[in-house]
Amino acid sequence: MVTLCWRPSVKGGGSRRGGDPNGRFKGLMWYKDLGVHVNGEFSMAVIQANNLMEDQSQLESGPLNSVKLGPHGTFVGLYDGHGGPETSRFINDVLFSNLKKFASEHQEISADVISKAFLKTEEEFLLLVKRQWHEKPQIATVGSCCLVGVICGGLLYIANVGDSRAVLGRVDKAAKSVAAIQLSTEHNASIESVRDELRSLHPQDSRIVVLKHSVWRVKGLIQVSRSIGDAYLKKSEFNQAPLLARFRLPEPFSKPILSAEPSISVHKLSSKDQFVIFASDGLWDHLSNQEAVDIVHNHSRNGIARRLIRAALLVAAKKREMRYSDLKKIDRGVRRHFHDDITVVVVFIDPYSMNRSSSRSSVLSIRGGNPSSPKL
């Protein structure tokens, strides 16, 4: 597993599996049913609900830095935007490059390298907000959750800000089943420990978290406590006119209310670890960790990301006492009243692939999303 992380790559092969090198579109759905990364196979799918697609995602397989003989592996990024698509698109454009830059400088992949890539991306986006502040002040209210997985050298790194989730499927031979193990830490004010963390960080602020319409929100404005972007809750200079009044706090703040510091876990992979499901909260609104893992375990790999989304939409339709076939007819924008944008990336980890060469080392770069969403 360690040697694979450093194996030179060959461009091509893996990106053409299934005859859809760049994925396909069907209505509001984008999907890549099956592809190959250096440690196995993967499946991706996205369903749009908002007028503008706010979810962005990518899978990069091959070199993880800019040094010719540097580490190779697989990078998965899932960016669930809120307030608009600008931040998630920005992250999709720059985060992986920042990771490669720091991996080159440190000559390794590590939790520190990944954290630096997150914080550098945050810094660059806040500079963009500053440049556009007078012409486009609303960009200060746009942010994104950011979930990243990196497989390299037999290790799986999971880094997260916000409430997207990564769940590992691990085989339990004794029980003849696959257990669901959540690897990511979520930062949402609905979680009591997150509210406690916010109160400890802001002991003088009695309204750091507010229960509003039965939903806990940071300052009564936003559910996530960590994100990239959301400049209006990071720097007081962006929490004033010409920002819309509904986003302005009554008093200036001296330290950031939200953080871009990721929670990072490092997991040593074993032969029991079968796959990882990366998904935005739109999926987890309707499926439990175990339900999602069971679906992946009990069905073919080909098209499994689409199958997970369909399972979530079936539940969403049932909650509204409507038929799934009728839900599918609802156009974007109106669709948001029934479910969120949903992005799913299922990454299979095949121990036997560790000793393969050529195509298993192919360079692959693929992004999920809607073509009607232009770059920032």
TrEMBL record:
PROSITE patterns reported for this sequence: PPM_1, PPM_2
InterPro entries named among the record's database cross-references: PP2C, PP2C_BS, PPM-type-like_dom_sf, PPM-type_phosphatase-like_dom
Entry-linked Gene3D superfamilies: PPM-type phosphatase domain
SUPFAM superfamilies: PP2C-like
Keywords, alphabetical: Hydrolase, Magnesium, Manganese, Membrane, Metal-binding, Protein phosphatase, Transmembrane, Transmembrane helix
Enzyme class: hydrolase
Sequence similarity: Belongs to the PP2C family.
Residue ranges crossing the lipid bilayer per the database entry: 139-159
SMART domains: PP2Cc
Protein name (database record): protein-serine/threonine phosphatase
Cofactor(s) the protein requires to work: Mn(2+); Mg(2+)
Residues covered by the PPM-type phosphatase domain: 41-349
Lineage summary: Eukaryota, Viridiplantae, Streptophyta, Embryophyta, Tracheophyta
